[in-house]
Design a protein that fits this description.
By secondary structure, the chain is low in regular secondary structure. It contains 1 helix and 2 strands; from the N terminus they run E-E-H. It is globular, with a radius of gyration of 12 Å. The chain has a two-stranded antiparallel ribbon with strand order 1-2. It starts with about 35 loop residues before the first strand and ends with a helix. About 15% of the residues are buried. It has a domain of about 40 residues. Bound molecules: zinc ion (ZN). It comes from Mesorhizobium salmacidum. This is GcrA cell cycle regulator.
Length: about 60
């Protein structure tokens, strides 16, 4: 039986990520759509973006 992780947020992710600050990002907090100024990413993985208010959420991706 497969284990499905249900709390993954499925946002469209660009294949080509440019340098931080160039692209416009939105907070990934569920139900939110604020500007996100905080990016969190493991090496070789797509970054997750959160606003100042929810940047604590992003630390779970580190
Ligand atoms: Zn937020």
């Amino acid at each position: 039986m497969d284990t499905i992780v249900g709390d993954e947020i499925s946002l469209p992710r660009p294949e080509h990520v440019t340098a931080p600050g160039i692209q416009h990002h939105w907070c990934e907090h569920p139900g939110y759509g604020k500007d996100a100024g905080w990016g969190f990413a493991k090496p070789k993985q797509a970054p997750h973006w959160f606003c100042f208010e929810h940047r604590g959420d992003g630390e779970t991706y580190l």
